[in-house]
C-alpha cells in the first residue's frame, strides 16, 4: 500500500513537472514566432520592437491615443 502511494506521488510530481515544462515550451514558441515576424519585417518593425522591449512602451490602441 505504501509503495502504491509513493508511486502515485511520484507520478503526480512528474505530471506537474511535465505541465510546467510544456507551459515554458509554449511561451518560448510564442516568443519565437514574434521574433520571426519582427525579423522578417522592415526596419520600422524592428525599431518598434526595440522601443517596446527596451523602454516598456506599448502601441496605442486607438488613433486618439497618439494625441
Describe the structure.
The protein contains two helices and no strands. The protein has 67 residues and is mostly helical.
Give the biggest beta sheet.
none
Strand content: under 5%
Q: What is the succession of H and E elements?
A: HH
Rg value: 21 Å
- Going by helix content, strand content and strand pairing, the class is mainly alpha
Low-pLDDT regions: none
Overall mean pLDDT: 81
Q: What's the helix count?
A: 2
Termini, distance in Å?
69 Å
Q: What oligomeric state best describes the polypeptide chains here?
A: single chain
How many beta-strand segments?
0
The proportion of residues forming helix, as a percent range, comes to over 70%
Shape: rod-shaped
Please write out the topology:
Layout: H1 2-39, H2 43-55
Give a brief description.
The chain has 67 residues and is mainly α. It is built from 2 helices and no strands.
Which features does this protein show?
about 70 residues; mainly alpha
Amino acid at each position: 500500500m505504501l509503495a502504491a502511494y509513493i508511486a502515485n506521488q511520484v507520478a503526480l510530481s512528474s505530471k506537474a513537472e511535465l505541465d510546467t515544462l510544456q507551459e515554458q515550451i509554449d511561451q518560448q514558441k510564442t516568443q519565437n514566432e514574434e521574433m520571426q515576424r519582427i525579423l522578417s519585417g522592415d526596419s520600422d518593425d524592428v525599431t518598434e520592437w526595440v522601443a517596446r522591449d527596451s523602454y516598456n512602451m506599448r502601441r496605442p490602441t486607438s488613433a486618439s491615443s497618439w494625441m
